[in-house]
Design brief:
single chain; 198 residues; alpha/beta; Rossmann fold; 7 helices; 7 strands; binds S-adenosylmethionine
Length: 198
């Protein structure tokens, strides 16, 4: 489904980074190692690399990754791209200083639990997780994201999932976004920025 959706020259989610990533860009520091999960067409991984993050971007869509590579080349940055399913991802222990996950709510709760556990494992002590998605209220807006309430995030869910992390930001808000045709209009959003205990 995703590969078909990306089978167009247009960038479905645009070429500019998520507003969330820009707002918290102080965590994208030169020389750190970053993982962008389900990164799609590369808008966020390119921004990470532009900030000097040594970036690995993964996604399961070959069409998305082809566009991500083209975007990185056009912007003159190095990003390592891997085609893989996040459900089969080898979460190497303590391998990254930063994990970025933007709109990855295709995961059912059991798969999400496994992926969140993988993110915890693959972060270095002191590493930072940046997670951005939709809240259940998004179902009323209907401007993007899954139509499945159990895949959406609440503050309670995120606090519980990353128990022990230092919460640097946890914010629920409604905002108009314009991130390609895929995500456009008034949206019920949630941000988490949290540090793994050192
Ligand atoms: C809503 S898009 C978000 C893309 C990107 N994070 C962004 O914000 O532009 C969801 C992405 O998840 C990818 N995806 C879906 N299922 C996946 C899986 N099992 N493993 C890896 N990526 C997957 C899709 O190919 C798509 O690029």
């Amino acid at each position: 489904m995703w590969n078909d959706r990306y089978n167009t020259p247009a960038y479905v989610f645009g070429t500019e980074p998520a507003d969330f990533l820009v707002a918290h860009a102080d965590h994208l520091r030169p020389g750190i190692k970053g993982l962008a999960v389900a990164d799609g067409e590369g808008r966020n991984s390119v921004f990470m690399a532009q900030r000097g993050v040594e970036t690995l971007a993964m996604d399961m869509s070959a069409n998305a990754l082809a566009k991500a590579k083209a975007l990185a080349e056009a912007r003159g940055v190095d990003v390592t791209h891997v085609e893989a399913s996040i459900t089969d991802w080898d979460w190497a222990p303590a391998a990254f200083d930063l994990v970025v996950a933007v709109f990855i709510q295709f995961l059912s709760p059991p798969a999400r639990d496994a992926v969140f556990a993988g993110m915890v494992k693959t972060l270095n002590p002191g590493g930072v997780l940046m997670l951005h998605g939709y809240r259940p209220e998004q179902l009323d807006f209907g401007t993007g994201g899954p139509r499945v309430v159990e895949n959406l995030y609440t503050e309670a869910l995120l606090r519980e999932s990353f128990r022990g992390f230092e919460i640097l930001a946890l914010e629920s808000y409604d905002r108009e976004i314009d991130e390609g045709v895929g995500h456009s209009g008034m949206s019920a959003l949630i941000d988490l920025v949290a540090r793994k205990p050192g």
